[in-house]
Amino acid sequence: MILGCHVQMKAPDYVLGSVREALSYGCDAMMLYTGAPQNTKRKALADMKIGEARQLMKERGIPMDRMIIHAPYLINPANSVKPEVADLAVTFLQEEVKRTAGIGAKYIVLHPGSFTTTDQVTGIRTAAAQLNRLGSLPANTVICLETMAGKGTEIGRSFEELAEILSALEHPECYGVCLDTCHIHDAGYDMNDFDGVLDRFDQVIGLSRLHVIHLNDSKNIRGAGKDRHANIGCGEIGFEALLAAAENRRTADIPKILETPYINGKPEYAREIAMLRNRKFEDILNEKNES
């Protein structure tokens, strides 16, 4: 299993600090923002200790394609209502893609966006049109559209919706998919039959385009469409189903990234990753509540 988690990226060590944090949890993959996710302010790449981070990953035998970048949530390529939001989706995403390439990462995960006051069809068409404005991406850089839970006016709830976007792109080689287990569960897919999920994904999109998996439990029943992550084994998906997904041979080469909640203000990634590697569930949530 290639397991990682969402790590921080902050001063003074920036990307080097992100790698160190991931290693402290027992990770052999990681995901990070290139700056604060809620704004467009960005530190110069030259100041972010990228060379040291890459050297540390090399020393630990972790290839750079296991460092995943997540695009900020304020990028909404499906918004056709506000021109300023549409322009930001293109200009800021262009910069984030350049920063991804500058860091040396390959994959940048992007939420397809929300159609706001229009409709699903318009949102899908708008997202494809906005992404086409990017043109071709830097060599060896891939935008991974994330599967969504379908809350509100989100697009990307089904594999078919993502396939519609992907089929309309002028540079399809620059795009792939990130599958979030919590999101697809909340969207109605059956995580107790992960091979069945992969079969459907392969039929609609193609497994060759699946590059990242977000491994999260869900606080919601299947099909709730709410998107509320739970700690591994502490939600409605359950430990056995998530373990089966994590060690599925068909996705053995794909990084699985945890984005599970902090408990009492602290991440539980080290323990959750150890549970998966040891194939043994421990009820973290109830233990913490009792203490």
Explain this structure.
The protein is of the alpha/beta class and 291 residues long. β3 (67-70), α3 and β4 form a beta-alpha-beta unit. The chain is globular. An eight-stranded parallel beta barrel has the order 1-2-3-4-5-6-7-10. Strands 8-9 form a two-stranded antiparallel sheet. The protein is 37% helix and 13% strand. It has ten helices and ten strands.
Task: Give the topology, please.
Blueprint lengths: L2 E4 L7 H11 L4 E4 L17 H10 L7 E4 L12 H21 L3 E4 L9 H13 L9 E5 L12 H9 L7 E6 H7 L6 H11 L5 E5 L2 E2 L10 E2 L8 H8 L9 E3 L10 H10 L5 H7 L1
DSSP strand (E) fraction? 5-15%
Fraction of helical residues: 25-40%
Order of helices and strands: EHEHEHEHEHEHHEEEHEHH
Radius of gyration: 18 Å
End-to-end gap: 31 Å
Q: What is the overall pLDDT average?
A: 95
Number of β-strand runs:
10
Low-confidence stretches: none
Major β-sheet, in short?
8 strands, parallel, barrel
- The number of helices is 10
Please list the strands of the largest sheet in the order they lie side by side. Answer: 1-2-3-4-5-6-7-10
Structural class: alpha/beta
Large-scale geometry? globular
Summarize the entry for a quick read.
With 291 residues, this protein is of the alpha/beta class.
